[in-house]
Backbone:
């Protein structure tokens, strides 16, 4: 087991002088930041505490491989890296390793849309057909940008046993772009737009094409310039599979050959789609995600009004079941890219990376308390859930 324990001085250097989070963009009712000043960091969040021990235990049992970074008011509380980025070349995960983000990518897509809203080129209430052609009339004339952003459009997924192998077989940006557009144009509606909520990769891929059509640039170029570079994210990009294969900094995804059957983890890089999209597949580092959240909350990607609009809660997401015994209820809301959770009187803004093979990530900002937690793992999806849950409990209890 390879372990990298980053000192506070080194972590500050890694994050950079600009990595101090603002705490003033979540809903005004939350009184963002009021709890943070003067309140000591719980011992269980500090090095040697319960969170640190849990990550170490999971890593020792080969159940965690990645980088974990916890900040309070922009300053490191806990920084750990475990496991291997590339087993075949004996390359360990480090604080500056680049990880696949999975669905955290949706935050970038949402901000790109909001930037074009701020420029007056997109309106949240407008129908999909205002910006794109080739969709069935019942989709083009009813689905709105707001519904695409909040997973209430009726569109579902584009992956699965039929499309998955097709998507994996594409081998160029042009092929990926053309193929994705064909798939979303054929994506059926599972319910009348605005009447329910279903997590929708197809919706965010559709938003990718709206961004491209309105901006006159490729989606990738627009996000690179106006989100990644504007936020100072120097290592973040939509790296293609060839770049991931050759780079010594990009972590390979590891998961059982058959996730349903379990067994030893193998390198899943060749099973990852050639290039990501508006729903997932960007790559980044912990420090770059700090830079992104710093730029977002500091109104550097959008003006203050549009930042509030993009990050404030919109539609409530129905719960999956009753809260566990002894734990406070959680209320989840869709935003325009991020999601917002209210638990125990504390707001959390961010996104979970999903359950892709070899990707298990989480980005969680606690504006009431001044914390930012970043969990980037290159093991199968969902494997970091207990770590992220413990961090949330320790901050919000």
Residues:
């Amino acid at each position: 087991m390879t372990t990298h324990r980053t000192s506070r001085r080194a972590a500050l250097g890694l994050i950079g002088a600009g990595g101090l989070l603002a705490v003033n963009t979540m809903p005004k009712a939350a009184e963002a930041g009021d709890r943070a000043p003067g309140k000591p960091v719980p011992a269980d969040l500090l090095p040697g505490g319960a969170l640190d021990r849990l990550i170490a235990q999971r890593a020792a049992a080969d159940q965690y491989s990645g980088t974990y970074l916890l900040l309070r008011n922009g300053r490191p509380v806990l920084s750990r890296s475990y496991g291997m980025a590339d087993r075949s070349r004996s390359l360990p995960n480090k604080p500056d390793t680049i990880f696949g983000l999975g669905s955290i990518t949706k935050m970038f897509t949402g901000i790109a849309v909001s930037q074009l809203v701020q420029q007056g080129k997109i309106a949240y209430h407008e129908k999909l057909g205002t910006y794109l052609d080739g969709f069935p009339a019942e989709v083009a004339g009813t689905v709105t940008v707001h519904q695409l952003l909040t997973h209430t459009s009726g569109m579902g997924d584009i992956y699965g046993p039929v499309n998955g192998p097709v998507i994996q077989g594409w081998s160029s940006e042009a092929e990926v772009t053309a193929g994705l557009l064909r798939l979303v144009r054929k994506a059926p509606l599972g319910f009348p737009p605005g009447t329910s909520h279903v997590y929708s990769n197809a919706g965010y891929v559709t938003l990718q094409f709206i961004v491209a059509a309105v901006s006159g640039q490729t989606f990738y170029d627009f996000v690179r310039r106006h989100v990644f570079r504007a936020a100072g994210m120097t290592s973040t990009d939509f790296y293609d599979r060839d770049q991931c294969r050759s780079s010594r900094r990009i972590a390979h995804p590891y998961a059982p050959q058959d996730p349903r059957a379990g067994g030893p983890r193998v390198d899943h890089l060749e099973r990852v789609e050639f290039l990501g999209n508006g729903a997932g597949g960007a790559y980044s580092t912990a420090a770059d995600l700090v830079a992104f959240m710093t730029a977002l909350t500091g109104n550097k990607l959008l003006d203050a009004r549009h930042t509030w609009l993009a990050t404030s809660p919109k539609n409530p997401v129905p719960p999956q079941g009753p809260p566990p015994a002894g734990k406070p209820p959680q209320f989840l809301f869709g935003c325009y890219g991020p999601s917002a959770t209210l638990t125990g009187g504390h707001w959390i803004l961010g996104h979970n990376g999903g359950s892709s093979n070899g990707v298990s990530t989480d980005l969680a900002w606690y504006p009431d308390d001044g914390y930012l937690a970043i969990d980037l793992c290159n093991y199968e999806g969902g494997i970091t859930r207990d770590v992220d849950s413990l961090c949330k409990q320790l901050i919000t209890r």
Summary: The longest strand covers residues 75-82.
